[in-house]
# Entry
Amino acid sequence: MDLNDLYKSEAYLNYLETFITENRKNGFERVLLNRTKHFCVAIEDVYQLHNTSAVMRSCEVFGIQDLHVIEQKFSKDIDKEIALGAEKWVDIHRYNNTKSCFNNLKSKGYQIVATSPHIDACLLDDFDITKPSAIFFGTEKSGLSQEIMDNADTYIKIPMVGFTESLNISVSAAIVINHLTTKLRNSNVAWQLTNDQLLEKKIDWARKSIKDIKFVTERFLNDI
# Structure
């Protein structure tokens, strides 16, 4: 049995749960009830490490399961002091160019949503949440690349009434993610994880919670 099959095995989950506390198991159940793949977040060439980590933390806090990170110009490790463990609970997908990220998300049925204050975009309150959407955020100075801006399906912006025209990416992402996920949970959209997705994440998180997971898995495979 390979790892892909293990992530689909109820028996494997039941076995792993004997190695974690009841409190942690209940925590997984509670958090996963509010996780979604209906929306995902993508960040493009964000060169300041703390901003990437802060966006990841916002995804985790507000229930976004997938963060897509384009590192065409800037490759980096996650700053764990800022992410505060969020890297364990959010799925990070990394790309070395914008096109591969764009094509992957489109193939999964996501509409590409570009965030920009400089375009005739719809405001957050007016955004149609019924469609699965990948929300793109750009660099701190120049925003999203022209490639994304030219090929996005739609555009959104945060309403601002001051002289300042833009916000730091970590602040923008937190505002957008919080607003859209709150709106999503108050809707009739089927936004929650499927049963298969729930099983996969429970196994993934249990594995990350067990120190000697390689030995535990080998023993499970031997037993079956």
